Amino acid sequence: MRIHGWEKRGLVIKPDQKFWWSCTHAMVPTPLHIAGSVYRIYFSGRDRYNRSHIGYVVIDMHDPAVVLEYSSEPVLGLGALGCFDDNGVTPSCAVRVGDEIRLYYIGWNPGVTVRMHLFGGLAVSKDGGNTFQRWSQAPILERCPTDPYLNTAPWAVWSGEEWRLYYVCGTGWRHQDLPRYHIRMARSKDGLHWQRDGHVCIDFAGEHENALARPYVVLEEGIWKMWFAHKGEAYRLGYAESQDGCLWERMDERVGITVSSGVACDSEMIEYAAVINHHGQRIMYYNGNDYGKDGICLAVEA
Description:
It comes from Candidatus Magnetaquiglobus chichijimensis. This is Glycosyl hydrolase family 32 N-terminal domain-containing protein. The chain is about 0% helix and about 50% strand. By secondary structure, it is mainly beta. The strands form five sheets. It has a four-stranded antiparallel sheet with strand order 1-20-19-18, with no helix packed on it. Strands 2-3-4-5 form a four-stranded antiparallel sheet, with no helix packed on it. It starts with 5 loop residues before the first strand and ends with a strand.
């Protein structure tokens, strides 16, 4: 079994304070292939009120550390007052479907008895990903009988027969500020309406774990592969594989990357990986300390 090894290249996508929506953070890198070796990397920056908006950079994977373009305006902003995403939006998955691009995203909403509410939303672009409109003002992942807590961070993949949605699902709250959540799966024929039965893909390794976050799933040569984040005290990256995309085996020891020593952008935590396979070379964009407050880091498979 291959163990991935990575060469870190440091911060490459940083907040740009000349843009009102990007005062701090560049959070949850979400790639979309444009053409050839060119990708658009969506992420969320925060405004001066600490609210998240979705923008992007353009990068050619021939030189994955160089930003060619930075969006001056967000492609998706806050939802209407009272909606599930009125306090922030963060990308989770961008996928082409016909002549559309679907952006599955995280909607942020402050709570009262608990710190926050998080649900999955969907926006659609008909202009190549330059702008997006909400498919619905309601979430596509709301509470349901099997999932009564938060339901968020959707990652959609076409299996060849159906759509699969891997998502973060709450299992309860340890206290007002500490939710507990793992990774489940939903199914769909159209990628819009989802059937959920509580199927767990990646579960907690033990009582010490509180969070399994941002599934990033690819199907390569008949093997389903998932990068995700897991947290006890602080986030680390995990890895899992599956023969059918339903039953998964955690192989965290194979992820090949962890926090850096000394003073570094990822010295305390590492999370939210996006892995691009460019001509057989894996390129990883990920967040580090304080959930990407300083930006998005780069690592290249060694």
